[in-house]
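Table S2 (continued). Query chain:
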Amino acid sequence: MAQVQRMSRLMVKTLRDDPADAETLNHKLLVRAGYVRRTAAGIWTWLPLGKKVYENVARVVREEMDAIGGQEVLLPALLPKEPYEASGRYEEYGDLLFRLKDRKGSDYLLGPTHEEIFTQVVKDQCSSYKDLPVILYQIQTKYRDEARPRAGVLRGREFQMKDSYSFDTSDEGLAEAYALHRAAYQRIFERLGLDYRIVSAVSGAMGGSASEEFLAPAPAGEDTFVDCPECDYAANTEAVTFPLKPVSVDGHPAVEELDTPDTPTIETLAEHLGVPASATLKNLLVKVDGEIVAVGVPGDREVDLGKLGEHLAPAEVELVTAEDFVGRDDLVRGYVGPQGLEKVRYIADPRVAPGTSWITGANKADTHARNVVCGRDFEVDDYLDVVVVEAGDPCPACGAGLKLDRAIEIGHIFQLGRKYADAFQLDVLGQNGKPVRVTMGSYGIGVSRAVAALVEQTADEQGLCWSKEIAPADVHIVAAGKAVQTELALDVAEQLNAAGVRVLVDDRAGVSPGVKFTDAELIGVPTILVAGRRSADGVVELKDRRTGEREELSVADAIARLTA
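Corresponding output:
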């Protein structure tokens, strides 16, 4: 049986004011309520109350993972570089990877995620189709060298994550494991009390095909997602697609060159010609692994460089500089057009469809061209959805105007396929006696991020507001101050504890009732029991932290209510 948590002995220091550098609710309140302490930028210490909440989230995750047949393991955080070189991710992760050498000069890294190591484990342990399918998972600390850690425990350089991996001999088996995880994630987030959306996503550096994110809508969220008000479509903005709608190239006037001095930007060009920016074609020059590539989008839209990078991964994408124009007479800065770009790969958004006509650069200084028709005057090498999605863009499913919202990514599931199995030649002996290449799924939940997301979604003006499932206690008993009140509070605490109720009791001497009540609201346990002015009569007050509803009950009735 657990002991009663007495605040007179508990290491918890509450603060009246927000930390000076705090911008988000979870940063402000978790620090003020004594749940976490900043150790360094993006590195946090979980204090006793915070550790209890974190472990409760982890318990829910474990229970649901175990329910789908997951087997828990624990892999090292300190890893050799060779497996990540084999997969290509040692370079792909770039500056996000913590790299180090041991005393012998051997290269290591701190694990950002563990696909490679899990693949090696299964290669070592499983040799036959009879050993599969298998689902392995761990709850482990991950490391990413974020350039700007922010938002408290929401975006750190060290964070806690559940990552699981499924291994199957067939695509059908992978689809089944994916469905099991998807349903398990829904149960996890519902038990935690999170409001969430399941959205289509891109796989990025993880690789693979099918991919979905679980997002918790919140103003502090770093992800933008779209939601259709007319149907059930939802997606990360990087996964939103626009259909290619070719029209006839016939019937357009011939190309006409225009004298347009001092109009190197879309804004100056549109003003000079008296046309909307949407009539112009913007051509952004980037370097893809050092090679100059042009990206065409309508002039009233912006190129989403993150989206472009995801499409072209693992290639490195960067903007061109003035030096890149040196010796390139075919590239006239501010006046680039797709017609005549023979030495440059041309990528376009699907809005630049065959048959559409544009005003664009003429590849001459101070000159643009009108009636430049896609499919007649220039060709597109590759179509990629690369514009920044805007509110009102058509829903890919039904055509209605999309809504934009901010959210916190709390989970991500991938059908990886055979990317890592190919890298490590993960085969098992099949039923026919021949080798079968294993197919994989990868499934992550940010455990520490889930704590932060709950704060962002549920906190109020008074402080934290936990659900019973993950709160550090079921009941927070406040002894208003006098000896009889403290004696009653401790007696009730022991009775509740004996009945299996988790209790936090504020028995601090010399602390005013006002401070105790404020701390109880700040700490956020779902039920507050006050041993106050009617303690001598054996009457206490019960308060629901979330609703604020209060009720006076006899001690016996209060205990019966709380142990029912």
